Amino acid sequence: MRGRKRMRVVATIVAIAMLLTVVGGTAVSVLTAASASAHDQLLSSDPEDGAELDEPVEEVSLTFSADVIAEGTQVLVTTPSGDVEADVTVEGAVVTAGFGEQTVGGDYAVTWRVVSSDGHPITGEFAYTVAGQAGDEASAEASASPAEEPVPAASAESVLEESGEADGLGATEPTPSSTTDAEETAGAGSMPLLYGAALIAAIGVAVALLMRSRRRLHESVGQDPRDRDQD
């Protein structure tokens, strides 16, 4: 009788340990996803991504889901004539980047990096096309001389960093929240390990109790019935 009770207790312990592991793992996943989705996002840009313009523009604007931090915000515009480090103005959630008068048509690419309201840097890029202009032929003749070898395409982050070094701007100092983000990510990654260790410990305790119950059950089989009743 006692052996059966002990087995039920062991089974209950194992079930509770497994339930806690599942619940804990789910909570860690939800918290990690919520943290990742908390960063600000680009809502729109002017010109829009993929837009086809009749005339060149001198500035672009980006609107985000929340106010961004001016410090560390960079915009690089790749024009048919070359790369231009834009003059950035931040007003709440809107970033305006001026890159001077443009007179030629072709493909334009905008690579941006801003610090969101929660202190984490985010990056992205978009592109638009300008129709051919009257000065395009003169520009083509001027560029007929041997040109430099094309530079391989790079990611948004690397393009901005390289441009900052070339212009003497230097890389932006990492914000304290960036370090905090890394620590939070490391902490979140260790949570499943802790739950796994707890599960292993609970199973070990359950197995030990089960073995002890079975051993005492076998010992009681060889006793006199009156002795068992006394136990």
From TrEMBL:
Keywords (A to Z) from UniProt: Copper, Membrane, Metal-binding, Signal, Transmembrane, Transmembrane helix
Protein's cellular compartments: Cell envelope
Organism: Isoptericola chiayiensis
Main location: other
Compositional bias of kind Low complexity: 140-158
Transmembrane segments: 193-211
Signal peptide: none
The organism's taxonomic lineage, starting at the top: Bacteria, Bacillati, Actinomycetota, Actinomycetes, Micrococcales
Stretches for region Disordered: 137-185
Name the UniProt record assigns to this protein: Copper resistance protein CopC
UniProt KW Nuclease keyword: no
Domain CopC: 39-130
A Pfam match: CopC
InterPro entries the record matches: CopC/D (IPR032694), CopC_dom (IPR007348), Cu-Rt/internalin_Ig-like (IPR014755), Ig_E-set (IPR014756)
